Amino acid sequence: MTHHTAATLTLHEFSDDLAHHFHDINAEWINAMFRLEDADREVLQHPRRSIIDKGGVILFVEAEGLGIVGTCALQKSNGNGYELTKMGVLERARGLKVGEFLLAAMIDRAAELQASPLYLLSNAKCAAAIHLYEKAGFRHDAEIMATYGARYQRCDVAMRYLP
């Protein structure tokens, strides 16, 4: 196994020519752990219509020598709420701190958008991701679960960002 250290990571804004990475990166991890649900398919197949055109954000991370290896979205919900969603990193780029880099960028972008609440929905099987979210300031939240959790069958974790 090759270890990459201190790879140069670069952020990219959404563009239609990068949309296939949003689909492929997320489909890889969702299919590995769960199964794609209708809500996933709609967002992954139509990211511009589902996220960008509704006031959301999709960012990509490029790792030097590896290309686009990670992506994440902020999907606008009611009021000025945003869901941090569809955060994925390709298996071949794990260990490069892509997730931390991407999560920090998304939290900064959410602050610019004055997102309130900033929340996420997940599953307990995603233990590494949940640990990353906790380290970044997300806390488990029953109100978020009650309000948004029914969106995905697999959702058993709901968290709110508390800066």
Description:
There is one protein chain. The chain is of the alpha+beta class and 163 residues long. The chain has a domain at 9-116: Aminopeptidase (3-Layer(aba) Sandwich). The chain is 36% helix and 26% strand. It has a seven-stranded mixed beta sheet with strand order 1-2-3-4-5-7-6, with helices on both faces. Helix 4 (98-112) links the parallel strand 4 and strand 5 (118-122). Helix 4 (98-112) packs across helix 5 (127-136). The termini are far apart.
Short structural summary:
This protein has 163 residues and is an alpha+beta fold. The protein has helices at residues 19-33, 38-45, 47-50, 98-112, 127-136, 142-148, and strands at 9-13, 57-63, 67-76, 82-89, 118-122, 138-140, 157-161.
Can you give keywords for this protein?
single chain; about 160 residues; alpha+beta; Aminopeptidase; 7-stranded mixed beta sheet; 6 helices; about 25% strand; disordered N terminus
Roughly what percent helix?
25-40%
Residue runs with pLDDT of under 50 for 5 or more positions: 1-5
Spatial order of strands in the largest sheet: 1-2-3-4-5-7-6
- Look at the structure and name the CATH superfamily of the domain at 9-116: Gcn5-related N-acetyltransferase (GNAT)
Q: Look at the structure and give the CATH class of the domain at 9-116.
A: Alpha Beta
The share of residues in extended strands comes to 25-35%
Radius of gyration equals 15 Å
Q: Give the topology string: H per helix, E per strand.
A: EHHHEEEHEHEHE
Shape: globular
Secondary-structure class: alpha+beta
Q: If you average the pLDDT, what whole number results?
A: 93
Q: Report how far the terminal alpha carbons are from each other.
A: 37 Å
Main beta sheet, described? Answer: 7 strands, mixed
* Topology, number of strands: 7
CATH architecture of the domain at 9-116: 3-Layer(aba) Sandwich
Q: Quaternary arrangement of the chains shown? A: single chain
Helical stretch tally: 6
CATH fold-level label of the domain at 9-116: Aminopeptidase
